[in-house]
């Protein structure tokens, strides 16, 4: 009799436990993960911003959650990517204003010393070119390391910071769109399509691609302008003037200026020959000096000419075109986030150009001798 009383209780307990487990597993996966995932936590914060903005009067074309997505994207970009952007700009300024002038000042006296030593070598020209190239690479690498402005890190840091930031923000907004009770089904932005659904008109996807391409092209344009700023700086003008008057060579007995050149004589020997220089201060002399000064440092002054930069630009253009297709199938809230981010990149590019122009005067300071 005691067993018969206990058995139903155990069966009931077992049945209740199984039922509880079944109900637990039927809960939506997103609801279970929202308490543990940083992505869903970020989505909750974006929703909180939208709820807070609902207390303020907003224009009719934008609702509180659309405004929350825009504001959250701007805040995230400002907090994460903008400091890295200015960190990279400072490194570019140090390379332009300190490293390149030092290399230019070092190059000529070292070449003259090496040319005199090359006369004693079996193959002077080959030896001179090899030794000069090796020494120049080592000297440049030491300067870049000393002043903490290696171009590879400068070029990679901004995109390696931007891409994860955009991906995490996009995943958070996508999580909001797929919530069963998402408020984005009841909110629109400049169209009749809810933000939780893709934009059937294709206007916003095209805007994403066009804004991304605009940001890339502005970056290229301003990079070329930075190279022009260096050529027009006070330091560059003084250097060209010095080349036009004294760097052409020592004066010979007749008072004419000469240029020292390493040449091979008909007998097969290598000698330093003095040839007549162009008139000091002439336009041809200045143009030649300026061209020579900037030719070897062109990739540093204008990153768009380097092979690595061209690869990154090709990837960026391909990604901008790909984003048009991705945006066609993405919720409007995601597209709004990408439009905001691309617009932020354009504003950031203009801000960087202003920063370069403001601190371009540093290039007029005479570089300290190594």
From TrEMBL:
GO terms for cellular component: mitochondrial inner membrane. Keywords: Membrane, Transmembrane, Transmembrane helix. GO terms for biological process: mitochondrial respiratory chain complex IV assembly; protein insertion into mitochondrial inner membrane from matrix. It is found in: Membrane. This is Uncharacterized protein. One of its GO terms (molecular function) is membrane insertase activity. InterPro entries: YidC/ALB3/OXA1/COX18. It comes from Tulasnella calospora MUT 4182. It is a multi-pass membrane protein. The keyword Membrane applies. The chain crosses the membrane at residues 65-88, 152-173, 193-216. Belongs to the OXA1/ALB3/YidC family. The keyword Hydrolase does not apply.
């Amino acid at each position: 009799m005691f067993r018969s009383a206990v058995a139903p209780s155990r069966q009931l307990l077992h049945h209740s436990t199984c039922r509880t487990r079944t109900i637990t597993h039927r809960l939506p996966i997103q609801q279970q993960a929202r308490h543990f995932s940083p992505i869903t936590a970020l989505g909750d914060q974006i929703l909180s911003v939208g709820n807070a903005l609902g207390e303020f009067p907003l224009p009719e074309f934008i609702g509180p959650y659309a405004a929350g997505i825009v504001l959250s994207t701007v805040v995230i970009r400002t907090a994460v990517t903008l400091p890295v952007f200015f960190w990279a700009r400072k490194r570019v300024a140090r390379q332009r204003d300190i490293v390149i002038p030092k290399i230019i000042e070092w190059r000529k006296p070292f070449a003259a010393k090496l040319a005199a030593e090359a006369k004693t070598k079996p193959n002077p020209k080959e030896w001179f070119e090899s030794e000069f190239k090796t020494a120049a690479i080592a000297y440049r690498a030491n300067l870049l390391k000393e002043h903490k402005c290696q171009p590879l890190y400068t070029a990679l840091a901004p995109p390696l910071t931007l891409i994860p930031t955009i991906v995490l923000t996009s995943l958070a907004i996508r999580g909001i769109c797929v919530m069963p009770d998402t408020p984005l089904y009841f909110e629109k932005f400049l169209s009749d399509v809810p933000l939780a659904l893709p934009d059937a008109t294709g206007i916003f996807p095209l805007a994403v691609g066009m804004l991304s391409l605009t940001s890339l092209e502005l970056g290229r344009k301003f990079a070329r302008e930075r190279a022009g700023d260096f050529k027009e700086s006070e330091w560059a003008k003084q250097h060209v003037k010095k080349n036009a008057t004294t760097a052409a060579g020592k004066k010979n007995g007749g008072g004419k200026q000469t240029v020292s050149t390493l040449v091979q004589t008909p007998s097969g020997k290598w000698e330093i020959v003095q040839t007549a220089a162009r008139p000091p201060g002439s336009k041809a002399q200045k143009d030649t000096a300026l061209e020579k000064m900037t030719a070897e440092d062109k990739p540093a002054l204008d990153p768009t000419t380097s092979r690595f930069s061209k690869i990154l630009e090709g990837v960026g253009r391909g990604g901008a075109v790909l984003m048009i297709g991705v945006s066609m199938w993405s919720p409007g809230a995601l597209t709004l986030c990408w439009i905001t981010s691309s617009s932020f990149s354009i504003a950031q590019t203009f801000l960087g150009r202003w920063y370069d122009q403001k601190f371009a005067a540093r290039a007029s300071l005479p570089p300290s001798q190594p």
